[in-house]
Amino acid sequence: MFTLLALAAESQDSVVSELFGKFGVNWPYFIASCVNFLVVVFVLKRYAFGPIQAMLEQRRERIAEGEEKLKLIEQQLAESEQTTAAAIAKAHAEAVRMINDAKLGAAAFTEQKAQEAIAQAQQILVKADAAAKADRERLGLELKREFGRLVAATTAQVAGKVLTPEDQRRLNEAALTEVEA
Amino acid sequence: MRLILPTTALWLLTPLLARAAEEGGLAVQAEPLWPGLPITNSMLMVWISVAIITVFCRAATKQMALVPAGFQNFAEWVVEGLYDFIGSILGPRLVQKTFWFFATIFLFILVTNWVGLIPGVGTIGRYNAHGEIVGFLRGGNADLNMTLAMAFIFNLLWLYWALAENGVRGFLAHIFAPKGQFHGLMRLFMVVMFLAVGVLEIISICIRPVALTFRLFGNIYGGEQTMEKLMGLVPKSLAFLPALPFLFMELFVGFVQALVFMLLTVVFLRLICEHTGHDAH
After folding, report:
1. Measured distance CA(B196)–CA(B194) in Å, rounded
2. Is residue A76 situated within a structural domain?
3. What is the count of structural domains for chain A?
4. What are the residues whose beta carbons fall under 8 Å from the beta carbon of B141, sequence distance 6 or more?
5. Of chain A residues 83-122, which have a CB less than 8 A from chain B?
6. Across all residues in chain A, what is the average pLDDT?
7. Confidence at A17, pLDDT banded by 50, 70, 90
8. A136 touches chain B (CB under 8 A)
């Protein structure tokens, strides 16, 4: 059995060497081909795959980083929107309160000013009334005086004599009594 | 089935390719540029691909900005697209550890395949002793050494990642231990059964680099050979014409083969790391 196997192996060896011989396979060319291929492997690994994969990895990291940042920004934006909405609501409430305060203040001020105006108007009225009364009295006195003078003058011209102060006084009183009646 | 198909394809493909080479056209093996110089036309093409990739990478990553533009934008689109695609199969933890390798596999195979379609590759060269043209340039993956090197390096890394993820015990358990819960005699039967399955799995694992190697080589070499033969069918002044439609197809094949190679390697890693990975969930 072992002899048969050895014979088979021997014949296999001769077939293989004949085959390789026909196809021009020999050690120097085979080793040169291996070296050539290993050079390609080195060149591609060193100058192509290495830098390109590093660049792809860098880009992948940048994209992942960008995604993370985007998430963070979205989160911050949401938080910011919430904060802004809260601030707006607070400002709105504050503004409403201030407007109400202002309205109340304005009403009170208006009322105060109205009261002051009324008081001033009343004072003006009182003063005007007093002035009018004084004027009326003054005019009345002047009128009486003028009327008495006219009556005395008329009486003097009608009677053709000069009236004494006593006559003039008496005439005046009589005339004024008549007019006032 | 996974074992049978690639093995069958390998045994069928080998004589066909060898016969095609014997009948003239594109040689099945890469040829030295000058006799005595251990540099083949395929190797030169691989260096050109490496130079293109290097220049593009430098242009894309020289002045990187947070807001990408131009080359950087395109490079980022490619890298991010590949990362997400591989990550959808391997899960977030495993893709972080292994992305550099799978992305390199895809981009390197793609660039090498497409650069190999530039007019002049395989047609500008010198005449050999038999009066046939030996192109100064030849598709990088139309050399079995290159595809074998990639498959070999993957297998080493696969073993390292598998052991790092599972530990030695977990790695062996993943291959040989019974899956499921069994008791009594059934358990004994399953242990024996899964030991046999484990042996098949080991053979399958050993076949994987061979299948990866020949699949890529066969497709690219086959495409170049097809175009070479088609160009020989018409007068030299019209040689470009019959190959033109196949040029577009080869663009597609170049992309598909890069994708298939990368996908298979990704899936192989996923399969061995599946049961332990938190990523699988």
Report:
1. 5
2. yes
3. 1
4. B109, B112, B113, B116, B147, B216, B217, B220, B257
5. none
6. 86
7. confident
8. no
